[in-house]
## 1
Amino acid sequence: MKISDNKFVSLSYDLNVGEQEERELMEKATAENPLTFISGMGMMLDAFEKQVLGLKKGDTFSFSLVPEQAYGSFEDDHIVELPKNIFEVEGEFDNEKIAEGLIVPMMDSNGNKMNGAVVEVKDEIVIMDFNHPLAGETLHFEGSIIEVREATAEEIVALSAGSSEGGCGCSSGGCGSCGTEEEPETTGSCGCETTGSCDCC
């Protein structure tokens, strides 16, 4: 059976970024812990699905996705300054959860969810980066197809509700923690209103 719409797909892969000798392994899905998804349901990047379309159990693949096919270019205006008080809980700022390098789930004034990386915490503001962690990167995938079969109704419901194993081929979320929601519509330069009306989830 070949990969086509509404098929349950299980595959292993290595994801590298960078070029030639400088390539860096970013994520690995193994046969014991594979990436699983239902094809044709928007769970994966369109370009990723097109590359594995028509493959069957035992087939291998090797392809690259440029930023335009993956998570776009790195945008300087997706780095924004937000007032520190929006991160307070009961009047207290949590220095452990809002610290440099951490990923913080947030929501804009329209209820759209997004993840932001803490760049720097200052006295009155927090500088956040709302670029995808792999923005600007060319993604190099190598792997093999473990299983292809008809998806059951239960699997379609479960995986579309977000219980997929996830991965960097997904259409939203970050490396290794991808859900199955489509990437939310955003407003303003970073997904937040330009007035800084983001809330910490």
## 2
Amino acid sequence: MTMKESAARAAVALVEDGMAVGLGSGSTANFAIRALGERVRNGLRITGVPASGESHRIAQESGIPLLSDPPLSGLDIVIDGADEVDPQFNLIKGGGGAMVRERLVAEAGRRVVTIVDSAKLVDTLGAFPLPVAVLPFGAKRTQALLSAYGGNPRFRVRDGKKYVTDDGLFVIDLDCGAIPDPKALHAAIRLLPGVVDTGLFVNLTSDVFVGHPDGKVEHFLANDRPAPWRQTA
């Protein structure tokens, strides 16, 4: 079992009968969705809200009943991955391009669980390029404006064309370097014309499950912040 799968399965154990569950997007979240599907086939009754077209497809294949949008009453729990996690539980997300919907799902959650392998633990965010979702109209100007906040702002490309998200947006990846104040950077970039969202998620995560190479899974709570990351080779 991989580190990602170990963390995902540990997090899925938190899900109880009757819950509305936010289903994240990406390789780690996919492990959680499939593990939830196993529990559904064994009698667990839940409703899922997927954060991307891919997670919707995997959840359907796994037999999880789905809603298309987060209910107004909110979600009992959200389980999703991240590209980086700092000791204050700030995240960089969006490596898969789904951060706009991932934020909508996360902000609807009463408990937001982040699942990662130990390689995603960092002292300070910023080694991973920061994804920024932008409107296609005026995107080149938005790209130029983003250069004030980091180096080499570049459109994400797939199959030789600009990558387009499930919501019809482009993604610009930005090399910020160390991000000492994720909240301030997120707020500043969000004010730029054409920007829809960034991959910085601040003060949203309540739990972090970390899978390690030795097979162990650590569970950190928000009360543990700053979390004492145990880096393993």
## 3
Amino acid sequence: QRFPGQKSADRQRTVGRPPLLHSTFRICHRDSPAYCGTMTTVFVDLMSQPSRACTLFCRAAGLPVDIEQVRLDKKQQKTPEYLAINPFGKVPALRDGEFTLPESASILRYLAVKFNVADHWYPREPKARATVESAMDWSSTTLRSGAARLGWHRVVGKRMGAPTSEDGAKEALGLLKLALHQLETIWLARSPFVAGSGISIADLQIVCELEQL
């Protein structure tokens, strides 16, 4: 089992790993110039939109990190081993040596700064960076509140046997329509990407919410 587009030469680390991590995917090859023996690991489940944003950024920017899968359907995010990494019991999470970090937006920012990525991902100029961060905040508070809740009431919650309702779905749809209108008329009104002419981590965060629909 591999991520889409992953070559057969990509390594899997399974020996000596905690039992909650049933499979591991290395983004960078050991013989790749990008590989630096990093201890940085991002824990994800690709069913999660925020997890996909972090994974997509790591791959698109060629970051030398490990991606480890945490199965939400098997409740691996609630095991003691994983709660020691992210006490909130959610994905994604990051571990860099002894340092751990929850929340996808914070993880995206941390990776961008740590690996000194190309400026378009997370601009150094204060106003441009503030625009990216503003778009990320908007995505988390406005777009996600509609998109994720709609997906929960219509699909995910039902598959998991959790409480759902058509009223909840209708309310989420209203929030989503408002967010999509704002995306078109505000964030994308003057440029092809939300923060200017180049793709940023905010765009990845937003597109992973939209592709779920």
## 4
Amino acid sequence: MFSDLSNFVKTVRKLGVRHVLLQMLNFASVLASGLMMWKGLGLVTNTESPIVVVLSGSMEPAFYRGDLLFLVNPPNTRYQTGDITVYKIPGQDIPIVHRVLETRDVVKTVDGVVELIPNPNNQLLLTKGDNNPGDDIELYRGLSHLERKHIVGKVRGFLPYVGYVTIAMESARSEFRERAKKLTILQNDFPQLKYAVLGGLGLLALIQRE
């Protein structure tokens, strides 16, 4: 660990503090620009996630794992049977990409009279994966149908296999989390390691001042 820290300090000195800071600013600028583009695209498409990646084979042969999907969620527009939607149930971490199998209007009973509410924003949906034997009711966590508030958007276009980059990044992030957990345990068991890390950060601060 100390050798890695020493190599890092030597690299910083070799490149120059200004050069390192400039690279960090450029990286931060790229991240900020990407975030602004993402937020702007979300406003235009009326969805919190205008781009998603297919993570399973439940929609084959229409879409395959790693395909990048572009979504829209137009307000006051009814979803039709056959539309490919992305939905997310509360408590469910990963959105699901499946096709609309059935649509219904919300039913309200007033004084014993059943009335339909043909408002697109109150529409009920039943979905199914093209490659699955049955519908998605078991995935709805007790609901009989999806409500429009569960819909992230519907697919308007896609790029095949481009999303494999994000799948690889997610795998790397999961591995990093596992290593971070081990490091936390190690720091708790060996407080000297924690002090060494703090000392290294202090040394880096002194070098930057120079």
